[in-house]
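Before relying on records like the one below, remember that each one covers exactly one chain. Contacts with other chains, cofactors or solvent are not represented anywhere in the record.
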Amino acid sequence: LSFHAVKHITSGEGGMILTNNKDIYEKLSMFRSHGVTREIDKLLKKDEGPWYYEMQFLGYNYRITDFQCALGMEQLKKLGTFIERRREIVEKYNKAFAKIDGLVLPVEKDKVKSSWHLYVVQVKNERRKVFESLRKSGIGVNVHYIPVHLQPYYQNLGYKAGDCPNAETYYKGAITLPLYPKMTDEDVDRVIKVVKEVN
């Protein structure tokens, strides 16, 4: 889970992993703390003293702070309200954009209740022109996401355009519209108005 500032709940940064596997849990607990353990039953040298610890594999400093956790716990109490507001905004967007020929709207399948982290529309024609017009009008749009295999790191490993045609087709039309719980109805109406004007 990500607790980045734009996610449903935030701790400023950081995240969490969920598992019901004890071995994975123990490995991850060490991994987040340089691969270090102080647990006597895991130590190779058990009689060194109470100060002793061992770095048993290469790990990282991935420890979230207590301050961040306190913020995250408070945010968790508001999660239901945050999701409810996101769903209200999506309902307004869907209703307003339903008849715009140049847009393909995101779909929420039957028996699914999305928490709507993002609201990504597909623009059928001239995505860049639409994107730039929205930005020029002060609408904070973005594109989520550029396909990973098109990034230089993966290109250097041999991946190339054409390897993932569905991801590439999606990327060519994607625009993410603003969606966050603190949006006022006026904010939402303004986004709707500008999107209709540029499409």
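The longest strand covers residues 119-123.
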